[in-house]
Specification:
mainly alpha, 7 helices, 148 residues, globular, single chain, 58% helix
Length: 148
């Protein structure tokens, strides 16, 4: 499993996932569903349900998750969480397989498991993407391009 993909996926959800419990759970669910969509929120909850017991059992992992929840866009904090999750996942292949299945599963609306949406504005700006089973083409994209 690509740990960077897991961190990139999970980081924006952590502020909502770590607020779960009681009345905060309802508010977090409503806010996250509105912000990310029901399918993405459900997937994040499923991944966190698998990771949570392992994270809570290790103080350094729990601290890293809380740090990212408080500042989800801080790349340094994401690196700390990445290190902690890598240690946990390296010790539990069944957990890795369970998370991979969740991430690769199609959404309830039939959308593919992992989607990347990117708006690129400007000349010769680099783009990101995920390629599986296809060719990678390098070079500049010219004109107004819409795909999907």
């Amino acid at each position: 499993m690509e740990i960077n993909t897991l961190i990139a996926f999970l980081s924006p959800f952590l502020p909502f996932l770590l607020r779960l419990g009681g009345k905060a759970a309802e508010t977090a669910t409503e806010s996250a569903t509105k912000k990310f969509g029901a399918a993405s929120w459900a997937k994040a909850q499923a991944v966190w349900a698998k990771l949570r017991p392992k994270v809570e059992a290790k103080e350094s992992a729990q601290e890293a998750a809380l740090d990212v929840a408080n500042a989800p866009e801080d790349e340094d904090l994401q690196v700390a969480l990445k290190v902690q999750l890598k240690k946990l996942l390296d010790q539990d292949e069944a957990l890795v397989n369970a998370i991979v299945q969740i991430l690769q599963a199609d959404g309830s609306d039939g959308t593919p498991g992992i989607q990347i949406v990117q708006n690129v504005i400007g000349d010769d700006n680099p783009v990101i993407g995920q390629v599986t089973g296809g060719q990678i083409v390098f070079g500049a994209v010219k004109g107004n391009v819409t795909h999907g």
